[in-house]
Amino acid sequence: MGNLASALAARTELATGTNDDSTPDAFFKAATALCQADVLLLCTGAGFSADSGLAVYKDIAEVPAYHARGLRYHDICQPYWLREEPSLFYGFWGSCFNDYRSARPHLVYEIIAQWKKLFFA
After folding, report:
1. Sign of dihedral through CA atoms 61, 64, 103, 89?
2. Full-model pTM
3. What DSSP line would sit under 25-74, residue for residue?
4. Which of 14, 28, 71, 105 could form an SS bridge with 66, CB 3.0 to 4.6 Å?
């Protein structure tokens, strides 16, 4: 377990570019906990996706056509648009879907994918 934790800590340190004196011990402790976990629940905020170039909630519906109708993000997210105006519903969610599919994940996504392969596959 120690070797895996050391390798994970070293990879994470290399990827993040940190190298102060307290960093190796902190990374080793975190890596050890990850290595011993049965499950990893990763909670992130909108900034995690924004680092890949995706719009955050406050910006995602900033489109002139929506503004002209007085619509904001929380308005467009209502399910009744599917029944009342399918073109608006599918246009908005289709645009979001296409953005998500075309975004290039940032480095942390790659690190998490490596963790999955190493420890949870």
Report:
1. positive
2. 0.60
3. HHHHHHHHHHHH-S-------HHHHHTTTPPPHHHHT--HHHHHTT--HH
4. 71
Per-residue pLDDT tens over the stretch 52-107: 889 888 888 888 999 999 999 999 999 999 999 999 999 999 999 999 999 998 88
Count of alpha carbons within 13 angstroms of residue 111, beta-carbon side: 16
Tracing tokens 């800590």 back to the chain, one arrives at 9
Q: Distances in Å between the alpha carbon of 49 and those of 11, 15, 26, 43, 104? A: 22, 18, 25, 12, 10
Q: Is 71:61 a contact under the CB 8 Å cutoff? A: yes
Instruction: Please state, as a whole number, how many other Cβ atoms lie within 10 Å of the Cβ of residue 8.
Output: 22
